[in-house]
Amino acid sequence: MTLLPLSINARRLVCCTGLLAALLTACSTSAPKTISQAPATSNQFDDTTLHTIAIAQDERNTAVLLPYLTNPEARYRKAAALALASVQDKAATAGLQVLLQDNEAAVRQAAAYALGQTGDSTAVLPLSTRIMGPTAVPVEQRYLYEALGRCATSATLRHLLRSIPSTDTAAAAGQAWGLLRAGNRGVTSEAAVARAVALLDQKQPLGARQGAAFTLARTPRLDLTLYQDALTTATTDPNAVVRASATTALGKVKSPSIAPVLVGLIRRDPDYRVRVSALRALNASLYAPAKEAAWEAITDPSSQVALTAAEFFLNNASGEAGTLFLEKANKLAAWRVRTTLLAAALKLGGAERSAIQTAIQQRYATATNPYEKGYLLKALGEAPSAYEFVEQATFTKGQPLVVGSYGMEALVAMRRLPDFPTAQEAAFALTIRRAIGYGDVTIMGTAAEALRDPKLQLGRILPNPDFIVEAQNKLTLPRDVEAWQALQQTLDYLQNKPATPTPVAKAASHPINWATVRTIPVGQRVLLTTNKGNVTMELYVNEAPGSVASFVELVRQGFYNGKTFHRVVPNFVAQGGCPRGDGSGSTDYNLRSELADLRYVEGAVGLASAGKDTESCQWFITHTATPHLDGRYTIFAQVVQGMEVVHSLDISDKIVRLELVK
Predict the structure, then answer these.
(1) Where does the record place the PPIase cyclophilin-type domain (predicted)?
(2) CA angle, 273 then 276 then 281, to 5°
């Protein structure tokens, strides 16, 4: 399952906000390395009313939840509002709007959060009215602004941009995060961008600076050339999260004068996440002034920086001999960095391209790590002349599944190259047909994506979709939901039909095991032992009972022991728990999304999914704050010790074991 649509190995994907201090500082993004163990207490579901509300949430039963919005007990009104934040039914909008005037601040905050999760544009005026009215608790403004950002349209964005007194730091932070929520949805304006830039000023509170930096980094299609000076200043912010996001935003400045700033950050910033952001902000036009710094970064102490530097060369190098990259690669011990440089060598090619291809194929023959073998096939995806070699490797029986997954991705990448031989297009179409009928869910999913790529025009060679239907009928739901989605989307495309809804498993097919929930106290911890060291996580049973119960049952079964981290994206996530090892594996059941009032700070532990209510066994840990995941992916735990280990993880690292600890 995916967090974001990156590559095939990205499949299956990313602090509690009730605390005033946490919210006003954007919920500090640095997870503590050590937190003392508090005495464990029973969870909240001994309360029969809270238990009933949780069941209704899991069953997506709006009708049962709505009466609780008017319950005399504030805790039940709050619980019902938060339950509706997961249900996301616009039928609840009117009832939630009433709660914006509740006597209890916690209830008002929960109602605002739920309205934002529902995303109903009719809530804009009530939210805006409440912002303008008296606010009992400063932090409430954060909830109101964020909800407004999630509901605003281009026509109503002005409500988010009201003038704020310079002394109102709570409103400034709220406005910044509201702009982020709107920007994540592509809702922005010149005035919104200018306001976000103004909120980067170091006189603003940390929460405002973080929200503004995220807004500028994450809002799509911005040209920030006019704001270069402000962004450059923000890269000196004392907070690393602000610096990293401001650095990402610098990548939207269309001027060669940013090169020295980015080079300086690559060489000198003490936080590896800023160095990663600086490398990613570079583009082909900045290759010449930045390449020496990128070569230095290849041997950075952080493997994540080194990998990002190698990716910079793969994406942007030009006018160089491929043999230069081959020589550099052969001196490196880190296989992921090495294979990425080998891909750059093959892409640049030159007179020695054939020799480079042979060297990569020889490495493939001697490699023992299946992930390295997969990456070597991915590198060969830069050369159509390697087609037969990669095809044979992809469909070899009895090998680790991950090898075939990467191989199929490489074959599709070859086909997209401008120098792919025209005479071989028909053969590629037959490979696609073979892949869809092959029976491997990742291989068929990748092939289905290629089949609906309009640039490849495979439909004219394979006009009869019966073989896709036949393959889809052999899948088992909900386990194979992602492959089912890929095939169905291709069928809809080929037949020019509207998108078919994904068949999401209902709660009745796998209800929450409340007997297990009752055994999990608040504060329950889990020890993750990896080959790089230990990580301790604290479970959020009150906020995500179904997810925590499933996770605990799998831990008790030893399900995760011996599995790998199959996906590690620098300055984003480390993801593991896939039974296949390539990101397409699942259990035989799905869970419902539990989108509690929690935030993706550094060290947040979330469940991967292929869409709402399709969670299963895969989970990920964030390297930094990733607010674009807030309210979209279940958070069920938080790292409380061992973040230095999380930052060191790479693809193929082992989950030695997971165990519950006191």
Answers:
(1) 533-650
(2) 125
